[in-house]
Amino acid sequence: MEEEHSELSNVERRVRALETVMTQKGYIDPAALDVLIDTYQTKVGPRNGARVVARAWVDPVFRERLLRDATAAIAELGYSGRQGEHMIAVANAPGRHNVVVCTLCSCYPWPVLGLPPIWYKSAPYRSRVVRDPRGVLAEFGVTLPASTEIRVWDSTAEVRYLVIPERPTGTEGLSEEALAALVTRDSMIGTGLARAVGET
Amino acid sequence: MPYVSHADIGGRSGFGAVVPEPEGAVFHATWEARVLALTIALGATGRWNLDMSRSARETLPDYLNLTYYEIWLYGLEKLLIDKGLVTSDELSAGCARLAPVPVRVLKADQVAAFLARGAPTERASLTPARFKLGQRVRTRRTPAEHHTRLPGYVRGKRGVVERVLGAHVFADSHAQGAGEDPHWLYTVVFDAAELWGSEAKPGHSVSFDAWEPYLEAA
Known about the structure:
In chain A, about 50% of the residues lie in helices and about 10% in strands. By secondary structure, chain A is of the alpha/beta class.
């Protein structure tokens, strides 16, 4: 613990030193850093993607546009820009499941999902999901029928992928907002499924 | 010195189990948020591009022992030093000693527009796409001596062109400062057996996005 604590402090000191020198040099506007942090902490996150998915569940015409030109369809809901410049949406269906990874770094569709969770950027997920997706999904508590085909999308270029999970059964009467609440971050990466009604 | 990326880990074993994480926590320490913001703000100076950033990070010798924001921090320091914006002495002292070089500074009121603009990589192509939908292709066998986005686990493998994604800034050239050099980009899909042999389970396929120079007709 002692060592871990001092190691962390070392990184903190290094970040502080960097920020100080950058400010002294006039390379950064410290207020801009605060705006950037606030953006990714409070404005841009997986609730954006959940709204896209819920819209696709209730509006077949939107769903078709989303599958044809995801960048434009997602922009209709107001989500676009950095790390979502070229979007592709891939839909799960009975017998077909999609999972997204970036084996080479941490490419992730920021405008719809925000910043990636730690596991998405870490070696265990990046190394194994391309080779043993069922084993990795099991670590997320997801078991798919043996007959389900699994496609793993390695986002090696500047195209970013959003998984449209299957709509849970028994949700016919739900509002778009209530449906969005069933759409988890992991279900839009493909390491989870959308929640069933009443499941937390 | 040969170019070594420590980030190309697709298909490797020995990294242990995945640790899922609840939705919600974006940063796990205050300094991580500062590193993210510094990386974006200093990237806005235009002194390097995203592919150079990736190259700076993946060549950190202790890459696999670092947390992700440590990788970003050390990659950023390396770029700032390499591009002449700061010296390592200044960073260790925590104090600017040399006059700054002129750079574009991202102001707080420009952040929203800057993020909304992003950095699209699709470009008009001067040549027709060499490969067609459904065409069988083979990926290049030889490793690159520079930053590349052709992962090792798909080198020398046979797959099928599934989508033609337009011409895009070519990461390999862009990372080396050789300009945008746009090339056609394709989604190429492989049957798992082609990648993993007998251990592959049926009904499993993997795709990646490949620039034309990574491919040849199979």
